[in-house]
Specification:
- With 348 residues, this protein is an alpha+beta fold.
- It has a domain of 105 residues.
- The protein has 11 helices and 4 strands; from the N terminus they run ααβαααααββαααβα.
- A 4-stranded antiparallel sheet has the order 2-3-1-4.
- It is rod-shaped and about 145 Å long.
Length: 348
Amino acid sequence: MEANNHEKFSSFNFIRFIAKNWLILTVVFVVAVVLAYVAGSLIPPHYRSTAIIYAPRTNAVSQIILAEESVNERLDMKAYAMEEETEQMMQLLNSREIKDVLIQKYDLINHYDLDTQKRYWQTKLYNYLEKSLVVKRTKYGAISISFEDKDAQLACTIANDVVCLLDSFKHQVENERAIASYNVLVHHLDEIHREQARIADSLEVVMQHGVYDFSTQSERTTQQYAIAVAQGNTAGMQRLEAEMKKLAEWGPKSAALLEVQENFCRYEALCRQQILNVQADMSNNIPTKFVIEKAIVADKKCYPKKSILMTVSGVGALLLTLIILLVIENLKDIPSADNRRKSEQMAS
């Protein structure tokens, strides 16, 4: 019961303390709000423009166009990307190469009034870009590309330009791999041709010994030899035995060479198909994204927010003043408590 009375008494004292100092608190609050309003008016306004895109499931032209029959949903050029492809595209959008293009194209060094003779000017430049260019996922799985700047038109232009730069940069990265793959395939094709020429020379040597089609020749020779034996044709048997001996020596070599030649023909066809696929990827001009919403010039500033600035400043100044007044009040009570203690000691 005493605790409740003490709590009510303390709350009443606090309310009475606020009522006692209401004028000071009101003046401080009003001054803080006015100063925040003036400061918000002096800060240059910033504007933000935003473009929204979706990443496609795949951009591999060779797989999309040249695939004959496939039920793989990744090969649907109209399909939107899943989480993995979206994160990969966000990484490309945040790449330093795109930022370097923006710096050079829009002369951002002078735009941000940076002195290249001072230390860490590059760090400051990229810090400005990190704060201005924001790439993030939306709650619907799309990619939001925002750019903030004092110039509303520039913010809009850069936001849309980043979307365009994504195509050229992604094609550049993919073309580097496609060109490397193309060179490897052409080298393999040359190796195949050399091997096929060697096999053809070996087959020519075998044919010079009279072996053209081992399977057909051996079957026909065996039949003729059986007829000669049945007829008792000694001369024919001797001639066919010599033929069979020649087939036994060169026939397996011919069969092996023909099998290897057939394998190399299949390998050559596969290699040529892959070269066509890579050439299709190298000439790929298909957009690498679905543009859902282009950035437009903002007509309302995004920073500073005067209402938020005034509210935070007023409440903060009010709380700070209240704390200071409470401290001063408690400091005043300390000497009076000592005096009471001395008075009690003298009375005793």
